[in-house]
């Protein structure tokens, strides 16, 4: 084997060992059929596109903002296999929908959608778009939707069981109400875990593609400013981590992903400049 090829393979192996560890799959996810979920997602995505097209809200293929999204996705997708071999068979697709809604998602099967509202209202840079896209890709790659469906089935079983037990003991449906509340909180906790996991995995994917992971900090600072610091429910009852918690977690993970970014950009770690967005102070 030529020395150059051997060195390249060694660097690739080292790169796979670095970064964010591949999360372990929950056995709960096996309660839901992955193929069925992906097929349903593809069908729903097609329905959404048809609806958007009928309302003149679907960006055409040659629309520059849509091409921008596609070009970012083309850099991210090759790094998705590290977190899911199932993604090898996905037919990735990117679409832009005209809506003021601050939202984006990636469905199982590799179906990506961004709303113009999230790009325009947050004035997103390419690095910040990559953080959002990587985050949403992570949800699909890690099968969070499949896991939550499995959790929902378990929660339903637990609720029914508690209701029957309380009826036997003569407490009416109080036990069922308590079990339902406990199940809801359990699902919320899992959702916060999913969000934190997707933040880190998304940063890893984006960093390997040459996007600055520090953009994730700026992204959530922008998101917090957009909300005026208001509108977030107490973290205990929220399906998303509080912005400050999120930023702290992201910052703590930077030492794991900055070397990936430096390598992708061909930079020495000490040569990396602070991340400068179009809003606020640079992020070191």
SSE order in H/E notation? Answer: HHHEEEHHHHHH
Task: Enumerate the spans where pLDDT stays under 50 for 5 or more consecutive residues.
Answer: 5-14, 157-190
What characteristic shape results from the CA principal axes?
globular
How many domain modules? Answer: 1
Fraction of residues in helices? Answer: 55-70%
Strand residue content: under 5%
Kindly state the number of beta strands.
3
Structural Rg: 21 Å
For the biggest β-sheet, the strand order reads 1-3-2
Secondary structure class reads mainly alpha
Specify the biggest β-sheet: 3 strands, mixed
Topology (SSEs and partners):
Elements: H1 3-17, H2 34-54, H3 64-76, E1 93-97, E2 104-107, E3 111-115, H4 116-121, H5 126-141, H6 144-169, H7 174-208, H8 215-226, H9 243-265
Parallel strand pairs: 1-3
Antiparallel strand pairs: 2-3
Helix pairs in contact: 3-5, 5-7, 5-8, 6-7, 7-9, 8-9
Describe this structure in words.
The chain is mainly alpha-helical. It has one domain. It is built from nine helices and three strands. It has helices spanning 3-17, 34-54, 64-76, 116-121, 126-141, 144-169, 174-208, 215-226, 243-265, and strands at 93-97, 104-107, 111-115. It has a three-stranded mixed beta sheet, with helices on both faces. Residues 5-14 and 157-190 have low confidence and may be disordered.
